[in-house]
Amino acid sequence: MKDSTAYRLFRVFNVVVLLVIVFVTFYPFLNMVAQSFSSEGNINSGKVNLIPLGFNLETYKVVMADSMFWTNYENTVIYTVVATAISIVLTTFFAYAISKRRLKGRNLFIGIAVFTMFFNGGIIPNYVLITSLGMKNTLWAIVLPNAISVFNLLIMKSFFENMPEELEEAAAIDGLNTYGILLRIVLPLSKAVLATMILFYAVVNWNSWFSAFLYLDKKELFPVTIFLRNLIAGATSEGTSFGGSAENLTQIASNVKAVAMVLSVVPILCIYPFVQKYFVTGVMLGSVKQ
Fold first, then answer.
1. Cα(209)–Cα(192) distance, rounded to whole angstroms?
2. Does 239 have pLDDT greater than 50?
């Protein structure tokens, strides 16, 4: 069938609108990158738009020459990998369990999970709890308190509910127990939603800084987000700028924020292309009921 004139106009309109949305969304990032490579004078005068002016690498050199930056960067990678792995395991097992209508107390478990979306103990009780458990200034203070996102849990629960029950029944007849069905049947068919959840958790854990700010006192344990936060603020926890020289920070204060943002976002941009093909599929499969 030949497309009607109205449908062709509709498609053109959609393309134009989406291109505008893409540009509006992408523009701040391009501007940030341009500022990170521009000179202080051009940034202060408001001349930098999408193209760097007065090409400048001084900020990158100063930041990346600091050994503490790389220590904190390594910490962030470790925290992100460990936290994401723990979150995926716990979320998957929890979601699979509450997706089964035969589970006794299923509604209670779902209610408890949803309750935590709206109510929590607060900062002070959480801090007292983490301290009393001896987790302060340890990896576990970062990776355990927020291990399960209820939003992600509900997406995975919905995804598992939409899987054909006949597959699991056939596997049970063949002699697989619950764990065997989950590991050998369900998970291989859940690559899309798993990749989506990994992306969600990895982004949150990579960008997280408040937990580290609250529970960590030692600079060598900080994630890179705390390092960059102190960089933007103009001081480390000892009251001096990075690299031990306050003069360096003053000279590049105009684009230090842009450099900090670029260094924070680049790793996630590198990961996203590898999971992008699963992203839309995973979210949609977990949000549409049969």
1. 28
2. no
